[in-house]
TrEMBL record:
Residues 32-250 form the ABC transmembrane type-2 domain. GO terms for biological process: lipopolysaccharide transport. Pfam families: ABC2_membrane (PF01061). It comes from Desulfallas thermosapovorans DSM 6562. PANTHER family: INNER MEMBRANE TRANSPORT PERMEASE, TRANSPORT PERMEASE PROTEIN. This is Transport permease protein. One of its GO terms (cellular component) is plasma membrane. It is a multi-pass membrane protein.
Length: 258
């Protein structure tokens, strides 16, 4: 595995190139181009704000800021899951011609979406300014929360990238799974609204810890969910190390399938 890791490090220039090219390819043929990085999460927020506040009459004070934080963080997760499931299969032309550590492709996919999330933070800042919410010193924990979520998403990306090569139907299943995951997570609704008998859903859902942590440091001037984040980060880190070992031993099977 050490030799495999050294080979991956030697390809760091390619890793950077693939991340940059991935960012350019997302909106290459669109009229608004990179402006979609800001407009896309903003449009999603407006849709759910209209549904919850205008149509249903729910929401509450500062719901716009509450919603945009949830939507931007969720968009990072959903886009990473979707792109990582196709990260290896979409590069079959390169993989079958040149030897590369296959783990580099889901890694690039995960890093690309991390950069996209940073643009979403601009939308969050605009909403905080509009609702006159001033974060406190706890905002310094933002890189820590982002790091834990990135580790979590990278672990998922490595698994999905490999499995999707052999089970192509997983891309179709993911759309339904992500939709269920979205509505079972406190993205557009507050965690306290869930009936007591269903509270276990929040306890086992990692997204709950991320959303609560972001909202704590942006809106409520309180600390992130340290215990939950530590557990998620530890499990994710162990999973990443295992998948690194797994790729080093089994990635040769990918070429046979592609």
């Amino acid at each position: 595995m050490k030799q495999y890791l050294r080979g991956l490090i030697r390809r760091k220039d390619l890793l950077i190139y693939l991340v940059i090219s991935g960012l350019k390819a997302q909106h290459r043929n669109s009229f608004l181009g990179y402006f979609w990085w800001l407009l896309d999460p903003l449009l999603g927020v407006l849709v759910y704000y209209f549904l919850v506040v205008i149509v249903l009459g729910r929401g509450g004070e500062n719901y716009g800021a509450f919603l945009v934080i949830g939507m931007v963080a969720w968009r990072w997760l959903s886009s990473t899951v979707n792109s990582s499931s196709k990260s290896i299969t979409n590069q079959s032309g390169i993989i079958t011609q040149v030897y590369l550590p296959k783990i580099i492709f889901p890694l690039c996919s995960s890093m690309t979406q991390l950069i996209n999330f940073s643009f979403g933070l601009v939308v969050v800042a605009i909403f905080l300014l509009f609702f006159k919410i001033v974060p406190g010193a706890e905002i310094l924990w933002l890189p820590f929360v982002m790091l834990i979520q990135q580790l979590f998403l990278l672990a998922i990306s490595l698994v999905l990238g490999y499995v999707s090569v052999f089970i192509r139907d997983i891309e179709n299943v993911l759309g339904h799974f992500i939709r269920v995951w979205f509505y079972s997570s406190p993205v557009i609704w507050e965690a306290g609204r869930l009936p007591e008998e269903y509270s276990w859903i929040l306890s086992i859902n990692p997204v709950t810890a991320f959303l609560s942590s972001y909202r704590n440091i942006f809106m409520y001037n309180s600390n992130p969910e340290f215990l939950h984040l530590f557990i998620i980060g530890l499990v994710s880190l162990i999973s990443i190390v295992f998948m690194l070992y797994f790729y080093s031993r089994n990635e040769h099977k990918i070429i046979k399938v592609l």
